[in-house]
Structures are given as structure tokens and as C-alpha cells.
Amino acid sequence: MLLWQVLGLGANKAGMEHPIPRFELSEHQFLALLVRAEPVLRGYARTLVPDWDLVDEAIQEATITMWQKRDQLESEDGFVPWARVILRFKCLRQLEKLRSRQPILSDEVLEKLAERSERRDPMELSVRERAFHSCFTQFSREHRELLLAPHHSLDSVVRLAERRGKSPNALYKLLARLRNQLTECVHLRISTEAK
Amino acid sequence: MDSHELICRYLHGVASEEEVRELDRRLRSDQALQEDFLVQSELDANLRQEAQLGSRDDVQQASSDESADHWQQNHRGRRMTVRILLALATVALIAVVTQAFLLPGSPQEIITVTSVSGPIAWTGDGGHVTNAIAVGEKLPGGTLELLSPDASVEFAFKDRSALTLAGLSAMTISNDSLNAGSEMQKKLYLRHGRLSARVQRQPRGRPLIVSTNTAELTVLGTKFNVETSPESTRLTVKEGSVRLKRLPDGKEVDVPAQQCVFASLENQNALPLQSLNSPVNRWQSELRQDVVMGKWTSRLWGIGVKLKKAVASGKMSEQEALKVYKQTAHLNDSAGSVWTVSSPVGALLVLSVGRSQDHPVHLQATSSILVRGRAFSRTPVKIGLNVEFPDGGFAGKYSTTIPASQFAVGEEFEMELPLNKFRDDRKTDVSPVGLELTDWWLVAKSSSGKFEITSVELANAPLRDKP
């Protein structure tokens, strides 16, 4: 069975087929909700699509659809789950494009990740985002440069390796270690704040 | 390899097929690993945002005398700026969407977009630029620019005249009107690229006008294709007739159905009509002539560079080098290669089939594309074909992706790509068999990708099956 069938897209999930509009959403309100939810949606799309260009395309397309279908939204609280359903569909379309270009995870695993991601609390994610920024600044300049390198261009890690006289593979290993340290730092900071 | 590293490699798009299979296997049952995958994806999203904020500059600033506190303060300010920019961008998007879908037709609207594919920029009134062009959108006068060889946009006027821009093209739609009644005269300026049109009969005295750098076309109602570069215009008429005026000298010719004409700045003597020849199913690129986007270098130039290096390194005297160069100079300098050029959408190379081939080139089920060249970077490459219907009109763009693993830096490559490997993203089940090949193109995903192409060929049977 295809992922979109498993996920129930196109069916009556999230009230998409027969919505009962309960409140009007002005442009300003829509904008505010979208800006607030954007980091959560970006992380969610990233879980499904391992290519940032396609993530951006999915988010752009989803934003237009959200605006067109905003009368289906029943409350502000429902914005993130509703937006995720629309975004999931757009991500699946982008995945079809990617499938011919590079190996990607199976539909079954992507479905599990999507479901798990949908259960996450958006508030928890924003706490995590704040913790990330505190931790990121603690890294040295060189390490921050490496952490950001994959997000500048596809081959920037390779170029960085050339500049530093190391092999790309060694740098990818270091990158994985740095990300691990960053993750640990985020965990630690969140648990300290909770206390 | 540990699971964490596998996740990183997957998210960065560098995991091999085997690694992805292994990660998939581990993720199926390991819930902790699934959680880790989500955390890593979120971390990646944060890092991406950090990179987009220009943290590199900040990193450099931080390395200077600035205190970490100051850096953080500055950074928070920038974050806020980006938030505001995001909001403004969204407002702009909403305005576009509102105009496109909610407001009743305004008298300024000239065309309706019927299909969009690939990166496109629209410059409207007041120089407002947007990349968010959607199907169904109604646009006033402005400029459409296609930013990649695999981009296309189809649009229609109110009278259902349908036009397609394909490949690297730019066209301005004029807001000018003759104010004759309610119907405007359609005026287009094709700056560069390829336009296919199916034009309904136009009102008396108000033909559709297509201007290029070198020619002006007057269209009453017909099917035609026009391809233009800064120096030349090629018009092919499939149905009806089109009048072409060569701009430098004002010379005019009526081009009837199944004829074509070529107007260039170089040759100003005559404007001979050519019959559309019977189709062929083979094509061998003449790189120097065919290149639309890419850097042509002659073999002679390459030899010159090698000789200079040999002299510089002391392997050859200057006299010996000059002797070799003079001997080589007798050779035909049409031999050479084309190199990809950088663009915002990647490294590009585009060849136009019609520039060196007088006959229409039709694709067959047994057709194969043979590409030879040399890779100077290891990056995935998309190779594509733009095609038209034999009776006129844009038919689509078909492409296939070659993974980075197929290339070795500095090494020559030779690829044979059967036609059934090529797919149209929009119509995955439609085959290009029977369609006319107009362009061949290559896009390397990274703009720093560097490829030298020495030959492109369309053969009519799998080349490797030849005895």
C-alpha cells in the first residue's frame, strides 16, 4: 500500500473534505499563525524529505494551499495539525521527484516517522529551538563553520575538507560527532531548564 | 557505521543506496532511533535556518574581538529581521494568491497561466519580482523569465490563443493597447529562448506581434515556433502564415505553412524560405553551432594552453611549441568541446538541435542518447530533452538523473541513455516516442559543478548492440 493511502490523505482526515467553518481567519491572523508554526513545519518536512530545495518547494506549495483552504480551519489550536496534513501531501509529491535521483527511506519507515513527528508537541519544539541557539553559540568558530557547511551547498563539506587538508570522509565523521555533541547540549539544557 | 552517522549522511544526501537500506532496516523496529531521527531532522532545520541567516558572517565576526554577548545580541536582531522578512514575503504571497484566486478579473489581466514547471521569475509592474507563479493565475503585462533548461510555462490569452515558453527563455508581455474597442492587441517581446504558439484568428488590424532582437513577426492566426538568440531568429510555421520583418534592414517575407526562415544579424542579403524537410531519427551535435548555454572552446585553444604549460615547465622550448601550434592550426577549428556555466539553478549546458540540423529530428522507441565528456566534479547531473509535437507546439521536457557516483573527477565518461530512461515529471506515463527533439540539456545540481562535453548524439538503436 502506498504511503499516502496509509496516511489517509484525500479522505476525511482533519476535516478536509466537509469542513464546518467555525471562525474567520483574517490575513493578519493567518500570517501570525504561519510565522509561529514555520519552524515546526520546516522540521516536519525535513523528516520526510532529505533535500532542502524540495522541502522549500513543499512548504511554498503548502502555504498557498493553506491560504486557499483556510476556511476549513476550525480553531487556532488546530492550525499546526491541519497544516501538517497539507504539508505531508506536498512532501509526498516532492518525494516522488527525489526517488529517481537518490535513495530514500521506504514508505513504511517514512510513515512511522511522520506519525511520530505528528505526535510531538509544538511547544516542546520551540523550547528545543531556543536551547539549540544557546548551545550553538558555544561551539568554536571552526566547528560552527563545519556544522553549517552542508547547508550552504552540496559540495561545501568537500571544499572545506580541501581547505583544511582533510578527507571529506573524515570531515563527515567529525560533523556527525559535532551534531551529537550539539544534540546532547540541547538535551542537557532542556532538562536543566525543566528543573 | 553507527546509526547516528547514518542519519547524518542520509539527511545530507550523501548516503549510498546500501547505507540507506541499512538505516531503513534499523529504523523499522527501533523506536529510540526513530526519535533520534526526528531530533536530527529538527536540528538540521535549525542549522539550515542559521545558515540562511548568514551565520558565516557572524562566525567571522565572532572570531574577531567582539564579545560573545554582543554576537548573540546582534544575532537575535538579525533573527527578528528574518522573521519580519518572512512575514512580509508571506504577505506578498498572499497578495499574489488573493489576486490570482479570489478577486474578479481586472481589466489589466492579459494572460492566464495554464501550466508551470521549474524555476520561473515574473517581473510585474513597478519591478515587483516573484517566483510564486501558480496555475490559474491571471497576469498583467510584465516579463516572464525561465531560469533553467528544464523550466516551462504555458499560458493563454482571453481568446484562447495558447503559448508556451520553454527552456532558458525570457519574454515581455506588453501592456500596450491600441485602445481599439475592448480587445487589446497582443504584443510580445521574446528576449531569448523558444516560444511555441497556437494563435486564434486575430481581429482585423490588430495582429499579434512578436518582436525579437533581430525580427518582428506579424501573426493573424496560426501555429508556429520561434527560437531567438541575441544575433538571430528562426521561425518555423506549421499552419497558416506569419510575416517576418528583419529589423536591421526592414526586409520582409511571408512564411507559409511547413516552411521556415532564419534571420540573423550576420547575413543581411536574402531571407530564403526553407521547406520543412522530412524527419530523421539521428542527430550528431555540432557543438560550436548548437550551443545555446555553455562555453565553447576549440581544440586549438586547448592545445595552445597545453603548449604554454609545456613551455612554462621547461618540457618544450618556445620555438618547438610554436612549430607544433602552427602545424595544428591547419586543422579545422570547429573541433572542440563545450563546458557547463554556473547559474543560480546549477551548472548548465544547453544545445539546440535545430541550429545544425535542417531536418526535424524525431524520437523513436529504439532511440538512445550518447554523451561523451569529462567530469571535473562529482555531483549528480540531470540530462534532459525538450520536445515538440510534429505539427507544432511544445510537448514537454523529459529528463533522467545521473548519480554523482557515475563520475570520477578528471576522468572521461561515456553514457548511453536509452529513451525509455527519460521521464516527463508532469506526465510520467507519456512517452516521447514520435515527438520532435528541439533541445538537449544538462544541469549539474551544484552551481560549482564542472563538466566538459565533447559529443552528444542521438542514435536510432542501442549503440552497444551494434556489431
TrEMBL record, chain A:
Please indicate if the UniProt record lists Hydrolase as a keyword.
no
User: Which InterPro entries does this chain map to?
Assistant: RNA_pol_sigma-70-like, RNA_pol_sigma-70_dom, RNA_pol_sigma70_ECF_RHOBA, RNA_pol_sigma70_r2, RNA_pol_sigma_r2
Source organism, top-level taxon: Bacteria
**Alphabetized UniProt keyword annotations:** Sigma factor, Transcription, Transcription regulation
A single Gene Ontology biological process assigned to it is: DNA-templated transcription initiation
Domain named RNA polymerase sigma-70 region: which ranges? 37-99
Which Pfam family is one of this chain's hits?
Sigma70_r2
Q: Which GO terms describe its molecular function?
A: sigma factor activity
Q: Does the keyword Acyltransferase apply?
A: no
**Name of protein:** RNA polymerase sigma factor
Automatic annotation (TrEMBL), chain B:
Domain FecR protein, by residue range, is 150-243
Question: Which InterPro entries does this entry report, sorted A to Z?
Answer: FecR (IPR006860), Ferrdict_sens_TM (IPR012373)
**Native species of this protein?**
Stieleria bergensis
List membrane-spanning regions: 84-103
Per the UniProt record, the lineage of the source organism begins with:
Bacteria, Pseudomonadati, Planctomycetota, Planctomycetia, Pirellulales
Q: Where is this region: Disordered?
A: 53-74
> Pfam families annotated for this entry?
FecR
Record protein name field: Fec operon regulator FecR
GO molecular function terms noted in the UniProt entry: sigma factor antagonist activity
Which keywords annotate this record?
Answer: Membrane, Transmembrane, Transmembrane helix
